[in-house]
Design goal:
273 residues; mainly alpha; two-stranded antiparallel sheet; 2 strands
């Protein structure tokens, strides 16, 4: 399986999609840092007078005042983890599974003495590795952007101010938890990538799934804890949210069921010219 993962990672790098996504994340990260600092400078008087500036229409005054270089990586994570990162994962995953099946390239992979389950899981794991790299890139870039472009401030978690190494440790913890959710989401979409015939179909299905799940979470709050999409932003805030035993069971169930389905579907699928 290690060879499969290595080959898929090399292929993803050669296809240059990863560079495009790095540019997108860079534009979002640096652009928002510049925009936030500019808006804060221009609207300081408005904030002091209790007026919410137009650029922050969806935020409370308290939230505006808390924006600073220390917590900027957390803010960026909250912006992209709900849709941008999941869709990037879908594009990578469908590109190495759905695309390979539709154009027949998968047959050449299966010629060698390797089990089918190793092939499909290797492809899924390679996407998860790439997403780890992208989220690490975003964390570093957002930290540097905040330090360079945005004024300094305090890093408060659960009404407790953190300093120095504690800030980095909290950031790493939050990013790793969010990464775990993206990884589970990636694995859960593997059966869909095998079943659907076109990459665009997988992407459209994923967008519909995310939007539909969000609506269900709003209408039926009791059901939301069973939807993996409801956890995209669960950890990207300035609180210490521990993962409960029930959530661990739900996450494990997603992984186990998705892997079993993916392997079963892939084993039964016939590949023709």
């Amino acid at each position: 399986m290690g060879t499969i993962i290595k080959n898929e990672l090399i292929r993803i790098v050669h296809e240059k999609k990863i560079y495009i996504f790095m540019i997108i994340l860079g534009v979002i990260t640096i652009g928002m840092a510049l925009g936030i600092e500019s808006l804060l400078r221009v609207t300081e008087g408005s904030i002091e007078n209790g007026i919410v500036p137009p650029g922050f229409a969806l935020m409370s005054l308290g939230e505006i005042e808390k924006i600073n270089s220390q917590n900027y990586p957390m803010m960026i994570l909250g912006v992209v983890v709900g849709l941008v990162l999941p869709l990037m994962s879908v594009v990578f995953l469908s590109g190495i599974i759905t695309s390979d099946i539709s154009d027949g390239r998968i047959r050449y992979t299966l010629v060698g003495p390797i089990s089918r389950w190793k092939v499909i899981l290797g492809k899924s794991l390679s996407t998860i590795v790439i997403m780890f790299f992208l989220m690490g890139f975003m964390l570093i870039l957002s930290y540097l952007s905040g330090y360079i472009f945005i004024r300094s401030g305090t890093y408060i978690v659960d009404d407790v101010e953190l300093e120095g190494v504690s800030i980095m440790l909290h950031m790493l913890e939050v990013y790793m938890k969010s990464y775990m959710i993206i990884a589970i989401f990636t694995i859960s979409l593997t059966p869909i990538c095998i079943l659907l015939k076109k990459v665009t179909s997988v992407i459209m299905f994923s967008v519909g799934l995310i939007i539909g799940a969000s609506l269900i979470s709003i209408i039926f709050r009791a059901v939301s804890k069973y939807l993996i999409t409801a956890y995209f932003k669960a950890f990207s805030n300035m609180v210490n949210k521990a993962i409960s035993t029930e959530e661990i069971i739900i996450f494990i169930a997603y992984v186990v069921i998705s892997v079993i389905l993916a392997v079963a579907i892939f084993n039964k699928k016939e590949f023709t010219e």
